[in-house]
Amino acid sequence: MDPLYTAAATATHGREGRAVSSDGKLDLELGVPTEMGGNGQGTNPEQLFAAGYAACFASALGVVGRRAKIDLGDAAVTAEVGIGKEGEGFGLAVTLRVELPDALDPAQGRELLEQAHQVCPYSNATRGNIPVELVVE
């Protein structure tokens, strides 16, 4: 692969530190969620992954919509990223909840979701590694 763009970010002190992008546009305090024993202050890696996956999948959906000459401008993607114990370590699971325009035929909407799942770089990176469920809302 010949990258079109490369993002770089540095995290210090793990889940209770700070994450900063190389261009300074991202500068976040990190914190452990209360559900995992933290104080809940700051964002966490799962939220960052969810935001990135939701944005990327929405873009992929736009690509397949344009190819099919279907306006998906009102579509919204919510990514839910769960973390839990898996063997000796931890694992992730993702649910992508997609709201499509009401005028879109449900079968056609589902087909567009499946196509976007093939186009999206996050989907390609996670395929075969973690479970990803696609849900039409």
Largest sheet: 3 strands, antiparallel
Side by side, the strands of the main sheet go: 1-2-3
Which structural category do the helix and sheet elements fall into?
alpha+beta
Uncertain segments are none
Please count the helical segments. Answer: 3
Rounded radius of gyration (Å): 17 Å
- Quaternary organisation: single chain
Shape: globular
* SS elements, strand count: 6
SSE order: EEEHEEHHE
User: Which percent range fits the helix content?
Assistant: 25-40%
Strand content: 25-35%
Question: What's the rounded overall pLDDT mean?
Answer: 96
Question: What report would you give on this structure?
Answer:
It is a single chain. This protein has 137 residues and is α+β, with helices and mostly antiparallel strands. 31% of the residues lie in helices and 28% in strands. It contains 3 helices and 6 strands, in the order E-E-E-H-E-E-H-H-E. Strands 1-2-3 form a 3-stranded antiparallel sheet, with no helix packed on it. The chain is globular. The termini are far apart. The model has no long low-confidence stretch (mean pLDDT 96).
Primary descriptors:
6 strands; 137 residues; alpha+beta; three-stranded mixed β-sheet; three-stranded antiparallel β-sheet
